[in-house]
Amino acid sequence: MLDLRPAGILNGITPITGGADMVTDISKLAGAVAAKAGNGGMTFVASPTQATTIALQSLRDPWPVLVSTALPAGTVLAVANNAIVFAADDPAIDITSAASMQMDTAPVPVGGTAPVHALFQKDVFGLRLRWPISWAVRDPAAVAFVQGATWPT
Fold it and tell me: Are residues 111 and 140 in the same domain?
């Protein structure tokens, strides 16, 4: 199957080594993308631990801080807001009662040991959302990230 997903936002970006001081790490990130951000601002994306620390220790938030559980602990990104472009088509929503679904909180590959149920047997409907969205980073210098931040200490 052809994978149409773009490379990750960190593809080809060299990480900045994080440390125990939040102010130093955030300053390094801001400095790394400031030239590309211009007056458009920037957004930080952080692992839950680092995002919580930023939120609790900031007197005011000059830039938004988003939380991502997909990031490993100690990782914080800075992205120039004008560096990400995207294109989206209209979403398509399908509804059916004729599909079979794997109903498990820890799904396994199809054909595995997880129970598969036909929707009509349960008298329920299944919804599927397909939304073709593509994005790209306009300039790799507009993205920076810290790995290995150890704050809070």
Answer: no
